[in-house]
Design brief:
Helix content is about 70%, strand content about 5%. It has about 180 residues and is mainly alpha-helical. It has a two-stranded antiparallel sheet with strand order 1-2. A hairpin with a 2-residue loop joins strand 1 and strand 2. The protein is elongated and about 65 Å long. The model has no long low-confidence stretch (mean pLDDT about 85).
Amino acid sequence: MVVVDKLLKWFEYPINAMLWLAIIAAVAMMLHVSVDVTARFFNHPFAGTTEVVAGWYMIAIAFLPWVWIARNDSHIVAGMFQHIGGPRFEYWLEIAVKIVTVLFLYIFTWQTYRRAVQQTFAGPQGEVWQVGGSFIPIWPARWLLPAAGLLMGVYLVLRIIRDLGGGYQPPSTPASAAGAEL
């Protein structure tokens, strides 16, 4: 388990980097849209604001924080199954959910990888969106999806290994902890 713990600790760097990239994209999007709206008052709107927001900023904001959310166990939880059994049932339920999530992520990652490759080699410049008389390259943003999916999938596999390696640990009750002190 020492190797898995070291790998999970190493994952903190890309997890934090992806979160900060998403935060930077959110701030850049807000500034970009604010400047565009302000410029419209002077009849000089920015060309391509909608395309850049949809093709770059929103992709980064939506997908890059996935692994950070997984690390913090902050995903949406359907709690209706957690109260069926006791702590042991909840332990196995969490592992089962992580396994299903990993399976979904690898399908997602494979499909988005295939699409990113297609868009990278689509035409002489890759996938581009026309804005006025120029083109905005969109294909690099297509690689954010498989990168985010792969990183989250690998992270969850490491968490599954750590959880299974540690085994089920029954929760300590305050009464048993107080009795241990006597």
